[in-house]
Structures are given as C-alpha cells and as structure tokens.
Amino acid sequence: MITARELKRKYIEFFKSKGHIEIKSAPLIPENDPTVLFTTAGMHPLVPYLLGEPHPAGKRLVNVQKCLRTDDIDDVGDAFHNTFFEMLGNWSLGDYFKKEAIEFAFEFLAKFLKIDVNRLSVTVFEGDSDAPRDNEAIRIWKSLGIPERRIFLNPKKDNWWGPVGERGPCGPDTEIFFDTGKEKCSKDCKPGCKCGKYFEIWNLVFMEYNKTENGYELLKQKNVDTGMGVERTTAILQGKDNVYDTELFLPIIEKIRKNSKIKDIKHERIIADHIRASVFALSEGLLPSNVERGYVLRRLIRRAIRSCYVIKCDVSLLSELARVVISIYHEDYPELISKKSFIIDTLRDETKRFEKTLERGLNFFEKIVEKENYINGKNAFLLYQSFGFPLELTKEIARERRIEIDEEGFKEEYKKHQELSRTAAKGMFKGGLLDASEISKKYHTATHLLHQALREVLGDHVRQVGSNITSERLRFDFTHDKKLTKEEIEKVEKIVNEKIKEGLEVKRVDMPLEEAKKIKALGFFEEKYGKIVSVYMIGDYSKEICGGPHVDNTSKLGKFKIIKEEGVGAGIRRIKAILIQNEEYSK
Ligand code: SER
Fold it and tell me: Which amino acid residue places its CA nearest to atom 3 of ligand 1?
C-alpha cells in the first residue's frame, strides 16, 4: 500500500525526470504579502515568476507546498474537505503548455501510480465572453483515451483558477476526478458534486491571462500551474472513501474516539482537521488573537473545543492530539519539533481560556432559545463579544438545532461597536475589537523608533532598506554587516520601550525636501519623494520623511519586543518585532 510520503516522493521524482527542479515549501504565512492571510496554493509564492520575472531555479519547478484555506471550512466533516492540506505542484514558467502538462499528469497517474484510468473523469472550461472553450484540452484528453462521456464542460466558476486576490495571473483549468464507485447521489451527480462519489485529485491550470482592472489580458508568457491534493490522492490509492482513514489522520481519529463518550464522525473529523491546521499555523509562530491570521487560528481552535464538548471528551485532549500530529509529520517538517513546546503550551492556554466561557455561552444560548426560537443580531453579537463565540460557531450550533439566526443583524451590531471603539475611550474592548488600521499605525510609529534606536546603538551607517507591517508584527530590513548581539538587541528594545514610556508626541510637519534634508530628517527613498514632503517627528528623538499614518503619542504603542533578527542578504539584516497590547498577550 502506498503511503502519503511515498506519493510525495514519487511525484517529485517523476517531475525531476521530466526536467523539473524541486523548490522548498514556502511558509503558510506569506512573507511578503500582507494582502492574503495564508498560502492557499503552491502557485502563491510564485506569482512574480508567473508574471514574467525569471525564477533562479529555471522554468520547470516542482514541490510539496503546505496550504491553509478556510473557504471550505463549513464542509469540513465530510469525506474530503480539509482546512490544512499538502499540495503537490509542478510548474512551467513560459516553457511547456497544455499538451505536455496533460500528458505528464496522465502518465504519472496511469504509469507511476497505476490508477485505473477507467475511473478517471475530467472537467474542462466551456468558454465565455472572456476566453474561448478549451477545445485543445478536450482534444488532448481524447487522444489519451478519455472518452467524451467522461469529459465535462463547466463555466468559469468551476473551471477557471485565480487570481488569488482581485488581480493577477489566472486562466482556464482542467480538473481530474476519481470515481470512488459510490452510487450517484442523484441523476445530476457528476464530477464536482460534493456527495463523495467523485474525488477531485488534480487541477491543471493554464495560466495565460492576467486579470487587471481593465479585464483579462494575455500574459507575457504561458504558464502551467498544477495542484494535486496529497490527502485525497493518498485516500484513493489506498482504496479509502475518505481522507480520515489514511495514516495522515487515523491515529488522530483513534485517539479522539478512545477519549470521547459519544461517537460522531463529523465532530471527530472537525477536531482532527482543525487541530492539524492549528499545529501547522502555530509551528510558524502564529498566536491566536482577535485579528486577521490570529483570529483564523483562534476560530479553528474554538470550533475544535466545541466539537470536543459535543462528543463529550475532555478538552485537554487537544494538546495531546497536537503531539500525534507532530509525530505524523515531523520528518517532513522539522519545525514541528523545534516548536513543539510552543505549540502545545499555546494550545493548552488557548483551550483553558475558552473552556471557561464556552459552557456559560452555551447556557446563554439555551436561555435565548427558551424565550424565542431565534437568535437575533444582538444576541449573536453578545455571544461573540462576551463569550468569545465566533459567528460561524453560533451558526453551526443554530444549524444543528434548526434555529434561525440573523447574520445581517450580527454584522450591523459588529459595525456599530467598531465605530464606538474608534471614538470611545481606548481599551474599551481590551485586546478585542481593535481594528487593524489602528494597530498598523502603532507598528508604523514603532518602526520609526526602531530605526532611530538602531542608529543609536549600531551607528549612523544603519539605513532602512525595507519595511513591512501587518496587524501582527513589523518587519524592518536595514544595512548592517554583522549579526546583532544579544546585548545590542536588548539595548534597542530598551530604548524603544523608554521612548514609549516617555509618551512622546508624534507630529507631522510638511516642508520642502531641501528643508527636510537640512534638519537631517531620515529619508532614504529620494526617488519616491515629491518637492514637498511630510516629516514625522517623535518628540525630539526621531525625524523621518514618511507618508504616515502614525499614532499621535508613543504612549499608545504597548510593549515593544524583538522576536527575530536574521540576515537576509549581503550586509542586510532583518528584524521582526511585535507590540504587546495587554497582559493577555504578554506570554
Ligand atoms: N492553483 C491551482 C489550485 O490551487 C493549482 O495549483 O488548484
């Protein structure tokens, strides 16, 4: 029986034999892209190369990429949807196109994996006003022996991939499905149906378009981007009708079953899937929080906790399950070992925090339902705000109990409170509903303090060469040719925290560039500046040319902490730092 690890090895070997170079998996948390939360596909880190920049490893690439997607989170619990998964991918960057891509895929499935090709069906883009029907793909599939009755045509919503955000590389795709042999769920059941009869195993994208604000334009080069799900393909290779019966999940499911009083396949699967995803997110240093990526993680953990509650197993099991996940994956992902205690401790703390309010929240839910068989927006918001129930959790419970919930009302309440939190006293929703832009302002101001402190500690040769801010951290690249010592890092932290404590006023003054240079305002991006520039002054400690925005006083920043210092190129160092907002995150 072929294991997932063997499948990965075979895939890489096969594409190497076809002239591909193996590249490393990028992190789940994209390094240079604050516009997306997680890496959702192997093509994601390759966008610049798909747009035409030459890749240092060449035009044919292959890898195994860890991915996290929450679009299908409501489907988790069925046979084959996961939030975290591994994706096998091969790429042609302006090299081969449809013929080779489809032929490679077919050869790999038929000859290497020895999959029964009579059980394969494919879907192809049917064409619309943006792009024509993919007759070429149809012709190639037929030439390989796939009969017309197993070739299905679909519109853009099913057979077009990308772009990841609003704009970027995209194109028609052809998807390969495996028939599990299960009965059709209805006479309309066909590849793409979610009933579990057809497993989508591989998606071949013909990336020849770039979506711009003016519509679809042809890309400079024609690319191929493919993605094969490790979990699903492993399941079909092992003759299983769901991914949870493979070695990737079975030990987790068995442990859950042993420790729970009620057998419920859906909730067992939710726990297994969500804990696995959380372990991988935590292994990259992500902390559960109330914003953006951290909130995705918090939602995954909270939903797993609630599922534990439903099947009557002790929530302390979750950190034990993390150990099982680590033992399944540590050979391929050594960071799981180096981060093991962080993963387990964070999971344990987060579980404890929510466990206390979960029961009270569920009681509150019951009380509402006793009065009226309906959850209105205000109550959904109360469950969110006072009991930490993410909306989807309340929705899930309501769905199970067949109770209606007013989602629009929830969103209105949420908006109202966000506005309130902007205008009302700060700290009102401690560590809670602070909006991301307020946090980015803080990080922005902290970046200026850091820049100045680095110059003070290391010397005037330090100059900013890059900066990137998310609501979770700042990242600052600067010129310096040595690793910083522990003492230097501590000194920098100390200075920044002193400046925060001093409560320095942050002022913006607009002036001609010449004037700004005269007063020695820092500014290393001359080609970007106009004649008049804004200079941000932090007390009399820092002066820097900048577009803002910033907070108006350093006392608002919280506690500054450097979490990483590393080299990123000759003579360039990178610092990642966080602002700790309140005690809750000060671990
Ligand atoms: N980008 C495509 C997908 O995610 C193929 O990798 O399905």
Answer: 227
Buried b (16+ CB within 10 A) or exposed e, 417-454: beeebeeeeeeeeeebbbeeeebbbbbbbbbbbbbbbb
Token pair of 173 as six digits: 């795709």
Decide if 400 is inside a domain: yes
The tally of domains found in the chain comes to 3
Same domain, 278 and 232: no
pLDDT band for position 530 (cuts 50, 70, 90): low
Task: Name the domain boundary from 374, 399, 427.
Answer: 427
pLDDT for res 35: 62
CB 201 less than 6 A from any atom of ligand 1: no
**Per-residue confidence at 427, pLDDT binned at 50, 70, 90?**
very low
526 shares its domain with 468: yes
23 lines ligand 1 (CB under 6 A): no
To test ligand 1's pocket by mutation, which of 175, 226, 231, 232 has the most ligand atoms within 8 angstroms of CB?
226
> 210, 245, 280: which is the final residue of a domain?
245
Q: Domain residues for 395?
A: 261-427
Q: 78, 95, 89, 96: which is closest to 14 by C-alpha?
A: 89
